[in-house]
Amino acid sequence: MKTKNMTKKIWVTLIIGITFLNSYSQKLNIIKLDSLFEALEEKNLFMGSIAVSKNGNLIYSKSIGKANIETNTNLSFKTKFRIGSTTKIFTSALVLKAIENKKISLNQTIEKFFPTIENSNKITIENLLNHRSGIAEFLAADEFSNGYTEAKSEEEMMAIISKLENNFSPNSKAAYSNSNYYLLSIILEKIYTKSYQELLDEQIIKPLKLKNTYFGGKINVNNNECYSYYFSDKWEKESEGDTSVPLGAGGIVSNPCDLIVFIEKLFNGKIISLESLKTMTQIHDKFGMGIFELPFYEKKGFVHRGQIDSFSSVLSYFPDENLAIAITSNGAMYDKKKILIATLNNYFNIPYKIIFEPFKPNVEDLEKYVGEYSSSKYQKTIKIEKDNTKLFAQINNQTQFLIEPIEKDKFENIWEGNKIEFKPNNKEMFFEENGVRYTFSKN
Question: SUPFAM superfamilies, per this entry (predicted)?
Answer without folding.
Answer: beta-lactamase/transpeptidase-like (SSF56601)
